Amino acid sequence: MSWGVANLPYGVFSRQGQAPRVGVRYGDRVLDLAAALHDEVFAAPTLNPFMARGRAAWHDTRALIQEKLTGDLSVTGAHLIPLDQVTMHLPIEVGDYVDFYCSLDHASNLGRMFRPDAEPLLPNWRHLPVGYHGRSGTIVVSGTPVKRPRGQLKAGVFGPCAKLDIEAELGFVVGVPSELGSPAGAFEDHVFGVTLVNDWSARDIQAWEYVPLGPFLGKSFATSISPWITPLEALPRIPGRAQDPEPLDYLRRRDDWGLDITVEVSINDEVVSRPPYSGMYWTPDQMLAHMTVNGASLRVGDLFASGTISGPRREERGSLIELTWNGNDPIKLASGETRTFLEDGDTVTIRATAGDVTLGEVSGTIV
Ligand code: CA
Q: What is the distance in A from the centroid of ligand 1 to the CA of 130?
């Protein structure tokens, strides 16, 4: 089953009147880890203290949970709580937040729209994973309503965003810090797991403000993540996509960190896109190497996201600006309605599967 012992994502839950604590999802229930494993690290309201224990502890804990769930449930079963009796919370205390731009198709599509007379890709794109630092303080858990932002839309014009968009992304959660910049260990010594990300984007605010320093208020009003962090161990890995030119040595891949994940984007419960993560150009090990190569440290709870996941076909694009080609080619919904960008009341849900493993969905409604 997709929420069986091969999956076991971690989250933070609370029962009515009780403090938030850490659990893992098993079927339609959550296992109260502090109670089941007699370990106070799971009585914390975030995953950070557990993540800080490191890779060996992550592995041993997962093995122990699997053993308990496949053994005699007469004891462990008492600590399995139906999901409809709990509230899910932001699972990590987010440290720094970085957003990359790793999809060749997404970067090419945006280049064609914004710079129609030039090469779609800027000269640096194939040489490094382009990224920027986002706002960690406005990362919210799935289900949190997203208020339509206001801002400068062009010279002398202020008002509510008229081009509110999504970006379907995969986020990577850092569990083990690095004070020296370039992490000493392997990728999986530092990165705990993955979560689905919706990088809400105000395209009109973004288009006016982004030159020359990059995304700012068009992105910082909200970024939603799933309440569930899927451990790296649960994910099927594949070779990364071929790269041309060969990247510099610090970006050289030492392991297969391509991920075979199929993503699904829905508006008001209707699927509008199925972006394939497997086609991403830059892999997460390369993102981690790049964001620390200058000496920048890592902290527990740092989050870095892949950038919009888009494939080569229209039905594989992970943002509305691409799906509607900057609003010129509306999406037709089954209800008969059309969409270019999001309207108030729209609910966007991003789901994903990695082989037999389902990732926790991320959803948000525009208010
Ligand atoms: Ca983004």
A: 11
Ligand 1 center to 113 CA (angstroms):
16
When the candidates are 1.10.10.60, 3.30.505.10, 3.40.50.2020, 3.90.850.10, the CATH number that belongs to 97-365 is 3.90.850.10
- Tell me how far CA of residue 224 lies from CA of 192, 203, 361, in angstroms: 19, 17, 10
Look at residue 1 and tell me whether its pLDDT is greater than 80.
Answer: no
Question: Predicted confidence band at 125 (pLDDT cuts at 50, 70, 90)?
Answer: very high
261-315 pLDDT per residue, tens = 999 999 999 999 999 999 999 999 999 999 999 999 999 999 999 999 999 999 9
How many CB atoms within 10 Å of residue 78? 11
pLDDT at position 183: 73
- pLDDT at position 2 is 84
| Ligand 1 centroid distance, CA of 103 (Å) | 10
Q: What is the pLDDT of residues 59-68, one digit of tens each?
A: 999 999 999 9
- In the reported structure, the alpha carbon of residue 345 is separated from the centroid of ligand 1 by a whole-number distance in angstroms of 22
- CATH 2.30.30.230 for domain 10-89, yes or no, is yes
Q: Is the peptide bond before 212 cis (omega within 30 degrees of 0)?
A: yes
Residue 105 has pLDDT above 90, yes or no: yes
Domain ranges of the chain: 10-89, 97-365
**Residue tagged active-site, from 106, 127, 190, 290:** 106
Does the annotation mark 79 as catalytic?
no
